[in-house]
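Same chain as my last thread, 290 residues:
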Amino acid sequence: MAPSVVAMAVFVYGFIGWTVLVSLSNWNGILPDYSFAGFKNFLEVFRNYRFVTDILNNAFFSLLFIGICVGGGLVLAIIVDQSVKGRDFFRNAFLFPMVISPVATAVAWKWIFSPKTGINALINILIAKLGFEHTVEFRWLISTIKLGPFNVALIPLSLAACWSFTGYIMAMYLAAIRGIPSELIESARVDGASDLQVYWKIILPLLKPITLGAVIILGHISLRMFDLFYVMSGRGPGFVTDFPSIFMYEATFRANRYGQGAAISLIMLAMVAVVIIPYLKISLRKGVED
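reply #2:
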């Protein structure tokens, strides 16, 4: 195990330590500057309007992403679990989007939501037919329309991400459903339970651990996602589709504000840790009890 331990110590925890060092430094140019700056970079980040907007965007995206993936994955798993013709084909078809590169996914969905093609074209044609062609043209990815404090432009990003990961959640639920002892279901049906009652009273309660795991996994993915956002829309006008990952990338590799970029990356790490650590503790506790 020594090689693995050394590699992890260097390439995981060593780099995290180096990032902490940079975040506490005055390195804001091409040349390294490790002079101590304290928590100045962190304070500047939290005072930045863009970062506050990014956190709100990430929160709205995460809610949509997790809700659609979990709900859609459960429904698909229930459908595929039925004895329907061609279920193996549909199971593979639902899983296929996950193996596609996020960049390719972003390009395809960007085309779908372009004002001149795909869904946007249909909506704009409908608007033109209603007589508003010179005053209204709905543009999803650059829309500044808000739903409360959140931007409509985040919806296409959420749909693209859900298209990629709903099949994965379906596979998790499907494996769990297939692992439920058939005796429980048969006993319920002997007692007169309908299919709906079997799912509601037996299967769904037994799927609670899978749901928790799915929420944790998707929450982790939503907090660190970058390539799909960056290729599909970037930060957008007025930061309507901006996220902490995009802010970190631009601050570090475009503005050469390495101290600020390191501070943002550590904040993102802390956000992911808040999601992951409780799940790991629960899993370890159950493993010890078993």
